[in-house]
Amino acid sequence: TGHTALDYGFVNTAATKSAITFIDGDEGILRYRGYPIEQLAKNSSYLEVAWLLIYGELPTGDQLGEFDEKIRRHTLIHEDLKHFFSALPHTAHPMSVLSSAVSALSTYYEGQSDPHNPEHVELNTIRMLAKLPVLAAYAHKKSIGQAFLYPDNSLSFVDNFLKLNFGVLSEEYVANPVMSRALERLLILHEDHEQNASTSTVRLVGSTGANQFSSISAGINALYGPLHGGANEAVLDMLGKIRDSGEGVKRFVERVKNKEDGVKLMGFGHRVYKNYDPRAKLVKESADEVLAELGVKDPLLDLAKELEEIALNDEYFQSRRLYPNVDFYTGVIYKAMGFPTRMFTVLFAIGRLPGWLAHWNELNTDPQTKIGRPQQLYTGAPERNYPGM
Ligand code: CMC
């Protein structure tokens, strides 16, 4: 059609209005429902921010208490679903395991997943928030060959998650409060980021009338890619390779600049942030603090700092306005907490879940919503005849 504008990567096209998250990429501003990310990261909790994103306001103490209680009551995974994990190789990437497990989870709630039934939507919101961390921890346990633990509903959201990951049968596990707080803070920083690739995926799938489980499973797959959530894993791999190859940071940066083998500086650059990523600033502050408090000394953190320093002073990165993004320093912290590298993007998924749920809701309650159906500009062959016709 003559009026179709071509916009690779949706750089200039808004597909929706949204009242959830505000970003000013030039000023480095991020707000959830109007509240600055810095204030939420300092004072709030994962579940409080989840409520804020999903329902639009901060909850009262009673509302938050009830929400928390409901989520604790829904953490159990059907015993049959646990067998699902046995069918997968232990070498499977936990992100593939997680997205498949969320799809599989939906089969337990068929008949209770009508996007137009507010009771179903509410219940599945609770189910997703309660069960995703448990499925994530099982993906972790599976990959290291350890037994799954039952959720301990006397614990807070984050402590329960840490215990499911790091506890072992028949031994007491008490989460280190420094680690709990640091993880909670990181999860809050990831909770929403307006129309990023995975959220847009959730919205596109949701626009077809698909339920929350199907839409979010698709979102997890979109997040897995190294240019999106997979970057936190890719950063650690990159740092490890630089260290092991002995090539030195300067030489590595040269290779990035020359675009040798398409190598990029992972954890740098952002579609929207062109001066700095406010999340990266908060994560960097945490990194030193957390490593010091956990008593971990990681040469990869020093390497990351050296890399950042060199890149920030280099004309290539300056002229393209490339700065560290949220993924640059998170991996170093997750590693210090004891998570294997392949779990990093899974942690991002748990963080992003409330945003996905909020966007799915916003889409489904907006009377202007239409099925998402982009245009194309056709560049193929003109009409031609099948041989013999
Ligand atoms: N290293 C080296 N060069 C880069 C990088 C990088 N990380 N990012 C962008 N560039 C270059 C790019 O090659 C291009 O150069 P030129 O003009 O010479 O062709 C220029 O900068 C503009 O980049 P772009 O690819 O047009 O930018 P985009 O908005 O399409 O991509 C991005 C944004 C995040 C995908 C990209 O910066 C990137 O691949 N970064 C590395 C992966 C990463 O860290 N992703 C996490 C993003 S933040 C959290 C999340 O979403 O999960």
UniProtKB/TrEMBL annotation:
InterPro entries assigned to the protein according to its UniProt record, in alphabetical order: Citrate_synth-like_lrg_a-sub, Citrate_synth-like_sm_a-sub, Citrate_synthase, Citrate_synthase_AS, Citrate_synthase_bac-typ, Citrate_synthase_sf, Citrate_synthase_typ-I
Active-site residues, as the UniProt record annotates them: 270, 327
Protein name, as recorded: Citrate synthase
PANTHER family, per the entry: CITRATE SYNTHASE
The keyword Transferase belongs to this UniProt entry's keyword annotation: yes
The entry's keywords: Acyltransferase, Transferase, Tricarboxylic acid cycle
Entry GO terms, CC: cytoplasm
Signal peptide residues on this chain, from the entry's feature table: none
GO MF terms, alphabetically ordered: citrate synthase activity
Family: Belongs to the citrate synthase family.
CDD domains linked to this entry: EcCS_like
GO biological process terms held by the UniProt record: tricarboxylic acid cycle
Annotated catalysed reactions: oxaloacetate + acetyl-CoA + H2O = citrate + CoA + H(+)
Pathway(s) it belongs to: Carbohydrate metabolism; tricarboxylic acid cycle; isocitrate from oxaloacetate: step 1/2
The keyword Glycosyltransferase belongs to this UniProt entry's keyword annotation: no
Pfam families cross-referenced by the UniProt entry: Citrate_synt
